[in-house]
């Protein structure tokens, strides 16, 4: 999946932020942003790891609104170039490999889990990168008609997408020790799932249970 996904996002990187403000997308984007803001509930003392950050739509918003430290991670060189232009710290890497040495209070994976082959690997990496009592929010396509349309849209552009149900994500995450907290459906095509972490989970990361 990796190479085709990177190729797809390399092409769209330059206009990614501008397109988010287009008449059609801005409605979806605003609603998703409000939901993620509510679920993450940052304050100025917190830090945010933005996985699959793209050109920085969320990174820029949270950095400006709450003055928090933000690190964006993305596998597309053209996307991280946009992060750089917008003054966001970044790492060029796949979220299936990336583990942070610093622990983050908040982790966001918006619009990226559907592009990874192995979501369990990503959840494990998050567990190793998140602070005790941290919060994770993932934004994923809804299964059903919304997800099918999303998949067709990407298939036409030769970008592979895996639509998984919210239950699947909840099951994988819970198995690793994340605590499911809330689920919201900000738009007909997306759902936002919030997990919390308890100290006990560090044990599971270390022992790989
Ligand atoms: C739909 S965009 C979302 C970007 C951003 N989160 C937003 O909402 O504006 C998906 C992003 O995930 C990145 N991506 C896809 N697969 C990835 C992976 N395995 N590791 C890191 N980034 C990935 C793409 O390069 C792209 O920038």
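Sequence proposed for the structure above (209 residues):
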């Amino acid at each position: 999946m990796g190479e085709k996904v990177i190729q797809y996002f390399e092409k769209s990187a330059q206009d990614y932020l501008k397109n988010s403000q287009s008449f059609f997308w801005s409605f979806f984007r605003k609603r998703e942003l409000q939901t993620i803001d509510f679920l993450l509930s940052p304050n100025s003392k917190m830090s945010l790891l933005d996985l699959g950050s793209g050109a920085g739509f969320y990174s820029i918003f949270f950095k400006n609104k709450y003055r928090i430290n933000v690190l964006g991670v993305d596998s597309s060189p053209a996307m991280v170039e946009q992060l750089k232009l917008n003054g966001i710290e970044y790492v060029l890497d796949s979220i299936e490999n990336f583990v942070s040495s610093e622990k983050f209070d908040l982790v966001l994976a918006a619009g990226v889990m559907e592009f990874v082959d192995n979501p369990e690997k990503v959840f494990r990496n998050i567990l190793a990168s998140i602070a005790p009592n941290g919060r994770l929010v993932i934004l994923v396509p809804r299964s059903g008609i919304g997800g099918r349309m999303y998949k067709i849209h990407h298939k036409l552009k030769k970008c592979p997408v895996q639509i998984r149900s919210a239950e699947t994500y909840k099951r994988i995450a819970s198995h690793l020790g994340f605590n499911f907290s809330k689920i919201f459906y900000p738009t007909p095509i997306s759902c936002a799932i919030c997990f919390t972490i308890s100290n006990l989970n560090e044990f599971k990361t270390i022992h790989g249970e």
